[in-house]
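Tutorial, part two.
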Amino acid sequence: SGVVARLRHDGYPVIAAANPLRGLDSDAAYVSSLLDSVSGPVVLVGHSYGGEVITNAAVGHANVRALVYIAAFAPDQGESGLALVGLNPGSRLGEALVVRPYAVAGGGGADGYVDPAKFRTVMAADLRGSDTELLAAQQRPVDLAALQAPSGVPAWKTIPSWYLVAGADRAIPAATEKFMARRAGARTVVVDGASHLVMLSHPGRVENLIVQADEATD
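Running the prediction step on this input gives:
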């Protein structure tokens, strides 16, 4: 909300896509359909797993001028989020994961939550404990199958990219974020000491990078 408020204050229309978190292909198709409904130029921003989604959703959309990754996965073709988590040491996500099966009409799956007792350590060490307790209770889980799914041809190969590295990230190691940013040729900033939820702890830094991407591709 802090990033959205700053962007709106600076005159940007903002759509915070309701990422379904059910499967990489279906999530990317959902965001792709949303892009179809936008007539003007788009700066597409993704955080965490959302980076996988924008990497796939932006393919074939000429109106997407820039991709902005915020402590996010930027996979190459065939890579999955879970594989990238283990690329370098430093992630504590695996030890904090709580798996809960779910059922829906016609099927179901297994959702991954971050253990509320470990949420602040893994996700938000630079936020107040009282805030992280609320965030832990309200977290939206992602189907583990989405994190295991191989990514398609990446949009960052043809669309200019920007990357914000969270320097103290314990979900996706900062070393992995830097690797993905370099590989994508992204213009990169590092926020030292920032947790995985850097958009909450440093909304100004996140907004600045989005504005840079817009101004550079205007």
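The two ends are 24 Å apart (CA to CA). In part three we will examine how such features are distributed along the chain.
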